[in-house]
Amino acid sequence: MKFYIATDHAGIDYKDFIKELLESKGIEVEDLGPFTKERVDYPDYAKKCAEAVRDNKGSFGILICGTGIGMSIAANKVKGIRAALCHDAYTAAMARAHNEAQILCFGQRVLGLGVVESVIDAFINTKPEGGRHKQRVEKIMKIEE
């Protein structure tokens, strides 16, 4: 399993914690930046992560900004990507089970680190349910055509 991770200046403080958490679970992590707290534009990093996930089948992404909203909106503009803004373990599990989300988005200003850990665990440990949900995911993807 491989994750790409990117943030903006408002999400950078959580990045190292998340990288260490994933690596402790034997998950490969590629950090797409930024690498300083200087102000950056989140769409640039959302695009970089979403394209990496799209181009590397079977990979996943994590995007963090202040609220997670901007990152999720920007990542979902990349064709073939389903990025989900999640606030707890339940929404993260449903994003995977029902929507086959490839990218997890959340806000550093919204979630504490304990919740972040439970959200990530739910996201990586939940498999897509398929069935009626698969049909719905296919309908979502056809919207891009």
Q: Could you characterize the architecture of this molecule?
A:
The chain is α/β, with parallel strands linked by helices and 145 residues long. The chain is 44% helix and 17% strand. Helix 2 (42-55) packs across helix 3 (69-75) and helix 4 (89-97) runs parallel beside helix 5. The termini are far apart.
Short description:
The chain is α/β, with parallel strands linked by helices and 145 residues long. The chain has helices at 15-24, 42-55, 69-75, 89-97, 113-125, 132-142; strands at 2-7, 28-31, 60-65, 83-85, 103-107. It has a five-stranded parallel β-sheet with strand order 2-1-3-5-4, with helices on both faces.
Strand line-up across the major sheet: 2-1-3-5-4
* Shape descriptor: globular
Largest sheet data? 5 strands, parallel
Strand content: 15-25%
Question: Secondary-structure element sequence?
Answer: EHEHEHEHEHH
Number of strand elements: 5
Instruction: Determine the number of helices (DSSP H or I, runs of at least 4 residues).
Output: 6
Rounded mean pLDDT score: 96
Percent of residues in helices comes to 40-55%
Cα end-to-end separation = 29 Å
Please state the structural category: alpha/beta
Any low-confidence stretches, pLDDT <50, length ≥5? none
Cα gyration radius (Å) = 14 Å
